[in-house]
Structures are given as structure tokens and as C-alpha cells.
Amino acid sequence: MRAREAVGIITKMVDEATRKTLASIPLLRTKAGPRDKDAWVVRLKEEYQALIKYVQNNKDADNDWFRLESNKEGTKWFGKCWYVHELLKYEFEVEFDIPVTYPATAPEIALPELEGKTAKMYRGGRICLTDHFKPLWARNVPKFGIAHAMALGLGPWLAVEIPDLINKGSVVYQEKKA
Is 128 a catalytic residue? Predict the structure, then answer.
């Protein structure tokens, strides 16, 4: 098999896996952001339902990789995400705010403790999603939400960047104390 054929097969597999993941995350209907008062409450309920479904799907597939919670208003989100590399679990704090122009603008997901460790990151530890994720988000407003940002933004970013950071020695395994 030639290298070009192999790349095509891998790309097709990734696309199929991505499509399957996307198909299992409910699409959102309400086009509302934090400034939209009552409509935001409806949107937030949809966000939670989609997140719950995505997390449950991940658990069912033995692919649990993050925990999120928000403030009461649903405007600030925080939690943990992790990546398993060579049977070691690397855990990171994750945080983001819902932009005032949401859902037209995607949230900027940050891993503050990794700030400055990769070129694919902005000030404050915000991960770079401009080339691949943001155009996809823009084409799917208001159907995409936080679960989609995790699945199509943070998940792929972790899969590409964390092994590279580990191999470079920029991220070092630390055993968690019970």
C-alpha cells in the first residue's frame, strides 16, 4: 500500500469516527446567548442535555475524558480534562467563558497550566482552534454548542498536542495523591 493510499484510508476513518461522534450529540435549536435572558435559559437547558448525552456516550464507549461544570448563570465553565498516553493519565484544568455574542462566536477553551508550552496556544492558555474548528462552528450556528466544542475542538487538540508535548518533555507525568 502506498503512503498516499494509507493517508486516504486514515483520513476516511477519522472522518467516519468524527461523523459518528457528531451524530450522537444532539443539535441545539435555540439561538440565544447570555444577554438573551429567558431564551438563554432555554439554550442552557439544551446545552446541558447535549453535554449529558455526549458524556454518557463517551462513558459507554470507555472514552471518558473530561468533567465540566458551570456557574449558576452558565457563563463560566470549568473542570478537568485528561489524556492517557502510554497508560499514564495526564490531567489538566480546563476553563472557558461563554462569549457575549454566543452562539455566533465559539467559546475559547483554555488549559492555563499549558500556557507557553506550545505554539498552538494563545495568551491565557487558550487553545488554537482558528484553522479547523472555528469555520466549522460558523457553518453550524446555532446547532453546535459546548459538547460540540469539546468533541471537535478540545478533544482533537489534546490528541495532537499532548503526545508531542510529552515527547518534548514540556509535559511531565505527575502521580496524583489520593
Answer: yes
